[in-house]
Amino acid sequence: MEKLFNTSLIGSLPRGNQILNSVRKLKAGLISKEEYDDLIAKKTEEVVKIQEDLDLDIITSGEIGRDNYVSFISEKIGGVSQMSMAEMLDYIDDKREFENILKTLDVPATSIKNAICTGKLEYKGEIVANELKLLKSFTKKPVKITMPGPYLVTRSMWLYNLSSKFYSSKEELGEDVIRIYQKEIENIQNIGVDIIQFDEPVLTEVVFTEGRPRTFMCAALSTRKDPTEELNFASHLIKSVMSKVDRSKSIASLHVCRGNWSKDESILLTGPYTPLLDLFSEIGADLLALEFSTPRAGELKALLSDERIRNKVSLGLGVINPRFDEAESIDSIYNRAKEALTFIDKDKLWLNPDCGFATFSNRPVNEYENIKGKIKSMIAARDRLRIEYDNRV
């Protein structure tokens, strides 16, 4: 990545009604798997072209073929089943608390799916490798593949009354997640990938919800332990997976946000990155892609004043709020980047949205016309920074 201020999406883009309808038809046997795969390929090519036309530096797949940012693994890993929140209710001991969580989340219990451990985990040959191959067939630009992080996967798939039949604890389950992820990393690096991004939004649930309603759908199932103990477990999982990434081939990135399922900012988490600094410094990431466009993320100095972080790790600075329809101004993005540059060197700063634009396939937080306008502002701010800081444009 020779240029300064590289830009990319975090991951997801809206799938659209045609894909959602085709999913229903596929399940009903009204179309073939080949017809469905052809549609996913066509729509992936379209979102790649959108990104190239907007001049993003690194291209993602848009996660067009995924039901949501984590549940799709139920189709990829043996021993995992996809269940709706309503279906999971039968296996929840404290049903009243769980129903209260769903109300807080503003999430329909029947429409959002989760991947649940219902057997011994088995690597079936690929998780995102085929998606990566498809992405690379449509672009010559650098590419990023996104994966739900190992802590997110372990935490979200552990449903005690089902999973404990196969694993004695969430921690034992996590060791198998590590094993499977290490195999997939080797697989996708053999294909060729410039950035591997692990999404770990649930980390903020650990540190920002003490004494408050829990507001992460995917974290609602497991009993929450002491935050320090939980972060140590998360750090172990993430570090074990990131250590497998051959840095001569790929950049290892960690993405963290505070939730991205609703336009109602008041129900999303708030707090600076301070409680996560130890984890950030220990896991061995090359790049931290972090939410920063909203005041809920705290001050930049809370992260960048730490000697273990500043200029030791590159920052993917979140400068676009995916949940707001209006495009951010070029000046606001430029000024936020300039603020970051008072702490870190210019070659350590990247630009990206806070999160994806469609965390759940049937519940996107924005639409393409708005998304394009927002990305155009980010690209214009990037170009302004490049002119100011470097003549390699």
Automatic annotation (TrEMBL):
GO terms for biological process: methionine biosynthetic process. Signal peptide: none annotated. InterPro entries: Met_Synth_C/arc (IPR002629), UROD/MetE-like_sf (IPR038071). GO terms for molecular function: 5-methyltetrahydropteroyltriglutamate-homocysteine S-methyltransferase activity; zinc ion binding. Residues 5-362 form the Cobalamin-independent methionine synthase MetE C-terminal/archaeal domain. It holds the Pfam family Meth_synt_2. This is Cobalamin-independent methionine synthase II family protein. It comes from Citroniella saccharovorans. The lineage of its organism: Bacteria, Bacillati, Bacillota, Tissierellia, Tissierellales.
